[in-house]
Amino acid sequence: LQQYAHHWATLLKRILLGYEPIGELREAARQENMDLELLLEMPDEEVVGIVYNGSNWVDHCYPCVLFLSIKYRDEPEAAMQASANLGGDSACRTALVGAIMGAMH
Predict the structure, then answer these.
(1) Which residues neighbour 104 within 8 Å (Cβ) at sequence distance 6 or greater?
(2) Model confidence, pTM
(3) Closest CA to 68 of 47, 91, 89, 92
């Protein structure tokens, strides 16, 4: 849990400090060994629910937040709506997606 709190705080801080958001998100995804090119071609329901469990497991929640934030980077409202509609621990995940979207826009 502590490592994800550190990753999350560092990511959000760097975006708020003005680092390029998509580069930061992609680097965070790379550190999680996520195959973004493959994931971005898949429907949201497969990424959040099959590839990653949509529950509150932090090692699955964090990659889901990264995926949704990258996929919907230009559409903050769509990002949060997609996250909320995917079920599982959508409240926590959507709050984190909203924080990223807020920092980016």
Answers:
(1) 15, 21, 69, 73, 76
(2) 0.94
(3) 47
